[in-house]
Amino acid sequence: MAFDISSLIGGSIGDAFSKIMSVFKVDPTKAMESQAEITKIQLELQGKLQDAISNEISESAKVITAEAQSQSWLPRNVRPLLLLCWGLCITFNQLVPIFARYWIHDLQPMPLDPWVYKLTAIGYTGYVTARTWEKVKDADN
Questions:
Q1: I want to staple 11 with a disulfide (CB 3.0 to 4.6 A). Which of 15, 44, 112, 141 is the partner?
Q2: Could you report the per-residue pLDDT of 109-121, keeping only the tens digit for each?
């Protein structure tokens, strides 16, 4: 005699499953209320996230302003100097193998990820934009 699971459950598996699921059915009004609460919490979290981002931006703007208004030359010029060094490293990575190929034939530039070039472009664009904005503001005074 073969083992029959339906005799063990007392009917078909589908009937047993539907009986079990009917116990866990949620009232539609309660489901709507819980969905509304979830939406409300998500909106609150998004608002808090936007507040945190705006606070972070304003704090970093204060730091940059304090560095720019410093009496010492180093804090005022550290960002442009780092950007210059970064750009020179990328430029030399490409130019040195071109000129050195007469002496070292197998010298190739180091392969750099595309994000390096994007980061450099963003940095230079931001710096040029900030300097242009400063000059425009000073011209109006």
A1: 15
A2: 888 888 888 888 8
